[in-house]
Amino acid sequence: MAIERTLSIIKPDATRRNLTGQINARFEGKGLRIVAQKRLRLSRAQAEAFYAVHKDRPFFRSLCDFMCSGPVVVQALEGEGAVAKNREIMGATDPAKAAPGTIRKDFAESIEANSVHGSDSPENAAIEIAFFFSGLEIVG
Ligand code: ADP
Ligand code: MG
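^ thats the input. predicted complex w/ magnesium ion below
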């Protein structure tokens, strides 16, 4: 398994409840290194651009409203098989279906306000990391 990087977002429901440190501890405890991180508030246009792949889904409008409703913490995580490992640590999209011990099982409020985003493939990870970070901001 290769060393990979993946894009993670701690979503507004989690920053509002002051869960950034607890979520970061899950990543670090499972061997992912936070090699870039910043807190920002997405504009509506930025949220729409980031989630453009979902623009025809019924939840798109509400998802973009939610994602720009408060601060997010965007991060690049690095480690062995980081893309799949992060998806495991996150758990299923719907917290009701997420495995015990996952971030979404333990922290998510709903299928929409589900605390974290993680890239779903190495290809998308590269695109999503470049959306938020320049090369200079990533320090492995
Ligand atoms: P994931 O974040 O697990 O990769 P998706 O890429 O399918 O899930 O969806 C992106 C985000 O859209 C989810 O994390 C969640 O915030 C929201 N979402 C997905 N499905 C629904 C739904 N049925 N209703 C409301 N929001 C949803
Ligand atoms: Mg996804």
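The pocket of magnesium ion (ligand 2) is lined by residues 120 (CB under 6 Å).
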